[in-house]
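Two proteins were folded this term; both appear here.
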Amino acid sequence: LQSDQDNGNGLVKYVLSGEGAGALFVIDENNGDLHATRRLDREEKAFYILKATVVNKHTGLKLEPETEFIVKLHDINDNEPYFSKEVYTGSVPERSLIGTSVMQVTATDADDSMYGNSAKLVYSISQGHPYFSVDPNTGLIRTALGPGDMDREQREHYQVVIEAKDMAGQRGGLTGTTVVNITLTDVNDNPPRFTQSINQFRVAESSKSGVPVGRIQATDRDTGKNAEMYFTIVSGDGMDMFEISTDKITQEGVITVSKPLDFEKKPSYTVEIQVQNTQVDPRFMSAGSKDMATVRIGVEDVDEPPLFDKASYLMELKEDAEVGVAVGLVSAMDPDGARSMVKYSIDRRTDMDRLFNVHPGNGSVFLLKRLDREETAWHNISVIATEFNNPRQSSHVPVYIRLLDINDNAPTFATVYETFVCERTKAAQRIQTVSAVDADEPSTGHKFFFSLAPEVMHRSNFTVRDNGDNTASILTRRASYSRLHQSIYLVPVVITDGEYPMQSSTGTLTVRVCTCDREGNMELCNPEALSSSPGLSTGALIAILLCAIILLMIVVLFTALKRQRKQEPLIISKEDVRDNVVSYNDEGGGEEDTQAFDIGALRHPDAAAALEEAAKQRRDIIPTDTLLYPPHRRHAPAAPGLIMPPVGSASRDNGDVCEFINQRVLENDCNPTAPPYDSLATYAYEGAGSVAESLSSLGSVSSEAEQDYHYLSDWGPRFRKLADLYGAEDSDFS
């Protein structure tokens, strides 16, 4: 850089700023020469913007404004072509035509494409001849051989190396390479072929329909869907006896039985099997690309059960047949060559009532009991045929027996008729139409005839007119009836059927006399004719009774639960080591309770001797022992915890009260059966905040020395009575 202000006198200083100043670029401050501190890469940054100025070395003042200039880097071919992938994967169908496109690969060059040929690339193939070629300008890979040379069944995978060279492929250019793995995909160009042209199988004659006989194999050089095949039976004497299907997993033909086999009729079969692809590519194979194989199937003889000549039997029998009459005949034979004898029997699970039986030798079914078609019209039984020589070989056949109807039931009224006649009517007035039913079922249909009973023909108040359509009309014979004179009439009607032998019955029709209005509607009948009576119905009475019983049961249950309510246990838990609070239902009345105990018994012990046993009784026990020691004057040791008053104080009352109490204490101490027993109450926790502090006897003085009870007066008004008793002077008790 050269400034106009630089006269060469050394007073000017050059200063550089901008991108890379001081790091990439430095300037000689004396003469303005610009230098690069290291090698520069155009691919990292193609140009730099710098600013320069001159200042006075002595004053530091700028001599001219800053000047901006750009440093551009000229490109050189220092970058080789680069492919985005190291390995490419492509595919092309086998038997493709020459020039079929496979895939395109592209390389990039970081050099400047606008300057020279540094970034101009040319593609070439260095490995993969003569199967593939590459376009030098676009990098498009194509097939180079014809359909006959690109066969997947001969070679499936190819590895091609593509080279990209800059400098337009000239000498001195840089190159980059990549690998392309090309796979030939399958097309259906191979038909299936049987592995064996003749196959032999054997099957038992007892095999059921659908039982597999054998598998036949075929191979196809193709893969996937192109190798899928299906089998068919095209000819042979076993086309109707066998079927073939394709196993979708193994692509094998599975031959199965389609109809029952019989060794005695035909011991072997021969069929022709054809195999072909499910999908045919017409470009490579014709529709007739098939393969054929012969299959011979031998039938093995087995011991078969007897075979009935019919799959089922239908027999008919009149319902009035006598016991022992033959119903029909079943026939079975051994299909094996031995022709074993057959024995017949009835499966009693199908004839629980033992109505039928079968002759064991000839298969004749006959009757054991009388039958009634009106009870059961059909009987279904099963007959068993068993070989004599091998009882395990047996077969069943259903036998359907239909009972034929005979006219053995008389017709009856179809329903119960409620008939009434008005007091004022007219002669030949129809008051009822009746019909009949018959349990029999004649083949020509029912035909019923109605008439009055002969015994009332001439003195009846009503007549019967047969309508000819299996109904009859009941008609009046006079114009008026009196309900008070006769309220009910019984009309006997004879009903006869038209079958042979003719059956008839007499049905009685009840006719009630009622008062009617002008239109003939019933208004009032005699009391017997009323269908309902005033008052509550039976259902209502039953409901009321049930409600009363339920209420009574609830009251009784509530009373019983109230009486049997259990008390809380005295001790809630045995494991609770704290204070156990014992609750009693009875409380003492204190000094005001003059009924709880008579102090006179203590003051006059001799007078209470007669009541000694009664005085010893407790409410919670029954006394069983008498007094162990007779009363006499004796000083017994006091019980633990009992504060005894001075002996001199007993003279204040009549009798020795102290001796009386000591005697009773001694008796209870010496009697092991007299409760309550001594018990130790352990207090693990004490209450807090009480004015009286702890009341436990465990920490109290156990000696017989006198104690000071003046502190009781400090416990408050609740302990005032106790303080008065124990806080008084000894002179008060002397």
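Next, the second protein.
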Amino acid sequence: ISDQKPLGCWSVKHGQVLTCPVVCNVETHEYVAVHDDRVLRIWKNEDINLDKAFKATLSADVCRLHSLPHAGPLVLFRAGAVRTLDVLLAAPQQDIENVISEEAIRWSGAFMESQQPVVVFTTEKDGDFFVYVQKPKQESVHKYRLEPQELSQPLSFTAYLKDQSVTLLCLCSNDCVYKVLIPLQQDPEEEEQTLPKSLLLNLSVSGSVLKGTSLVVLDKDHVAVLGSLTAPDKEPKECLTIWNTKFQTLQTSKALPLGTSGQLWCYEEKFFLTHGKVLTVIMYKCETSSLAAAVGKLKDSQTPGVTSCVNWNTLEDEEPVVSLQSQESVDLKAESRMNVILKPGPCISELHSISLFQDTPTNVLENKLRHLMSKTQTPDLQATIGSVVTALANRSKANPKYYPQNCLLQLVETRDLSYSLCPDLMALALERKDMYLLQICLQRFPDIPEEITYACLETFLSISEAHLQKTEVDLDSVICYIDVELRNKEVKTEIVENGFSEELDQDMCDTNIPKETRAKSDAESCPVGPQRAALLNAVLHSAYSETFLLPHLKNLPAQQVILFLRYLYYLYVKCSEKVNTTLPGVRSPTINQIMDWMCLLLDAHFTVMVILPEAKELLSNLHKFVRAQVRFYSELNKIEGSLRELQRLNHLRDSQSYSIEVLEII
């Protein structure tokens, strides 16, 4: 989510359905999934086709998968039995016993207790609720009955492990949260116990009642509840709330006007929930609570016990950038990143005040920023600087004569910012044709949307050479392989190191182009100037998803496609001159980046390239060069065994002796 790029996408065949959430086996770095209730799939990140992944058909329906560190995945069957994944894989068709009878599993969780996995799940039958505790490695099962609550039914469960007992929290339909203590040790011969429920929290405040749908435990004194807040004579509104269970107070809430799915997840001090059609990620931090903080009377931020405080307003104006549409590849982007601060320090307060100085002269602003950037970094400084950049960008949009380029460059170059923290910056740089700022952003931002990457590429290819020669650009990525002074002079270059020689391969392509009528080859000199080359290199380094970039690339004009392909072909040949296929210089493109972009362009414009007469020679050269390299590497593969044998003989030979040997490779 930090990079806002899809790292992988796998799908089952048409007609198949994933029937429980996928988990990751942290021990083997594998994914484990179940589709159609009984078919188990296991695959790794590098696997592309899920249909070719490991498959095992089980003898019973699976309810849920759980993954625990240092224990491996656990499989909970609908019949209530639990197996570790390794035991199950040893005999996939083994008999699965029925632990429950005519009961439906409503919730399950897994914990580690004394280095042993424990699975706890709740079931329902005819309005009665039960709790099961299983230790699969000890083959023990304990069953408890939940104390019934009049005129109320459990809606959601969550649990945590503490002091060798599981604390189960129940969110009930009477707008209350109850606590149930579940012992992990029980005499097997003891009859079924009824576990009493104690009231933990009443979800009402000042006449308003929260109709909760899900809850998560944050720490021993705080829970988060997602639901709909209702009040007399007012429309219900969905919101996320944090409650202090120790003092029975509502700590903070966040309205969610676009609606949610009713599900809430919590992982590593971050909330995850769907808000409308986007995934929202909210950071939080809970510290030791005190009564003064709980009732809002805390005056001194240095008091030893302070409560959690979520700053909902940080970057609240950032627009959602990607919808969770029903498609095979989904790009999940954070709607907003809301940081937690207890009390703004002096550095943060000054930075926030800068964003309000709409009339501050540029030189004063630069000095102020330089002074503040030298101060010690605080946890929320990055997000605050993003707000400052956004404020400067908005001021520039409102005033066409105002453009603090030095300030913006200073902020981008000295801080690890991202596109999502200042989404208006690159749009402003495109509008002002600030090539240098765009180049730096492409080099440093890990989460640039494909639409913006394409806009930068189109700008870099369309801008005039005369304008570029007057533009300041970082040339570190090209200075080592493009001769700036002699670029326009004809330099004859013959590439033979990696298997390509023009004289040897004239017969490899059916397209014959007379030498005397041909212009200088694209492989002999760079088809673009060093400034444009450096900008294009920044695009090559930018992260992207092919699924989202291809539709934009199809809009690139044909002449710009040819120019970009000629430059990529030039880089490809330059890489092939080196044994390690690596270009010299800082942030130079890699052979994989070059090849990926060539394939992208040809996929987007292949028909146009075939029809255009001016692309004929370029496609011919590409075809000839690639075929020559394929043949060269094919020949290398043929002698691979002989080369390994030679390497083995070198190890056996006495290094102190001198000899001349002639080895014949047949």
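Confidence is low (pLDDT under 50) at residues 297-357, 484-522. DSSP finds 16 helices and 25 strands in the chain. These notes refer to the second protein only.
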